[in-house]
Amino acid sequence: MSENNIPFVTSVQEKSDKIVARNIHQVYKIKQQDSDSLTNFEAIKQLDLTVKQGEFLAIVGPSGCGKSTFLDMIAGLAKPSSGEIFIDNRKITGPALDRGIVLQGYALFPWRTVRKNVEFGLEIKKIPEKDRKDISQRYIELVGLKNFEERYPHELSGGMKQRVAIARALAYDPEVLLMDEPFAAVDAQTRETLQEELLRIWEQTKKTIVFVTHGIDEAVFLADRVAVMTANPGTIKDIITINLPRPRDGIRSSAEFGWARHKIWELLQNDPSAANKVKPENQDIADFISPSAAL
Ligand SMILES: Nc1ncnc2c1ncn2[C@@H]1O[C@H](COP(=O)(O)OP(=O)(O)OP(=O)(O)O)[C@@H](O)[C@H]1O
């Protein structure tokens, strides 16, 4: 190639790149223990990550490594101290309806019924009432809550509330779904059901999903790739491609699943920030990563 053919800009994003985070740093001013003076705490350092269009990317890492902070940055709810995040080549400067967010605590409006919760984003988008009803109905049925439309959140189980939160995030048709430990608060059986339903919905809707979890099994079961973060300061240590076939029903007992699970566990175990924690016999790997973890 002659010199003239060398492009001036070498960092042009690939067409299939949906989210690009470049050189993210996050520094907080925190009070020192025995004095009133402030000191810099480096929560995230030099974090680079690209998420492809339609990809399911999971992020795992020890407690406090910056998973939620980074997700908040993609959501536009937090600003990095330095570095930039782009969606479709546009720099993120704040929250927008191109990103749907599902958090651990459901965050439903207690005074709204299931239907009215799901219609919330549609109201903001000023979708006419008749269309709102049709759209919310479609998503309520997609998450398996037909006949629960007029219930209030306090009349639902944890798993049902989480389904409402997913339906609400999907209903206004964001291109990207950001999920922060969305299934942590439900029992193991419900969690597996919700994981399977999320995959079904993802396959139908072709959204790009970034999914933060403490659960290695959960990450391997769901994701195309798993970004493993390390702490103090938080950054991405490695990205593991999960080459398991889809659909993934029944995959949890396969050797390939076990290999991916072990690989991620090893990466986390070698993290000095987690080194003082020993994985006890028969305890789930997620408990080793964080005391609050659940798979
Ligand atoms: N406003 C803040 N001021 C000071 N430090 C903060 C602030 N917000 C977060 N941190 C620190 O930044 C680090 C990353 O926090 P973050 O919540 O993103 O971690 P996480 O990986 O999501 O943790 P967990 O898995 O326990 O939810 C932590 O050490 C946290 O104490």
UniProtKB/TrEMBL annotation:
<dbReference type="InterPro" id="IPR017871">
    <property type="entry name" value="ABC_transporter-like_CS"/>
</dbReference>
<dbReference type="InterPro" id="IPR027417">
    <property type="entry name" value="P-loop_NTPase"/>
</dbReference>
<dbReference type="GO" id="GO:0016887">
    <property type="term" value="F:ATP hydrolysis activity"/>
</dbReference>
<dbReference type="Pfam" id="PF00005">
    <property type="entry name" value="ABC_tran"/>
</dbReference>
<dbReference type="GO" id="GO:0015418">
    <property type="term" value="F:ABC-type quaternary ammonium compound transporting activity"/>
</dbReference>
<keyword id="KW-0813">Transport</keyword>
<dbReference type="InterPro" id="IPR003439">
    <property type="entry name" value="ABC_transporter-like_ATP-bd"/>
</dbReference>
<dbReference type="InterPro" id="IPR050166">
    <property type="entry name" value="ABC_transporter_ATP-bind"/>
</dbReference>
<feature type="domain" description="ABC transporter">
    <location>
        <begin position="19"/>
        <end position="256"/>
    </location>
</feature>
<dbReference type="GO" id="GO:0005524">
    <property type="term" value="F:ATP binding"/>
</dbReference>
<keyword id="KW-0067">ATP-binding</keyword>
<keyword id="KW-0547">Nucleotide-binding</keyword>
<protein>
    <recommendedName>
        <fullName>ABC-type quaternary amine transporter</fullName>
        <ecNumber>7.6.2.9</ecNumber>
    </recommendedName>
</protein>
<dbReference type="InterPro" id="IPR003593">
    <property type="entry name" value="AAA+_ATPase"/>
</dbReference>
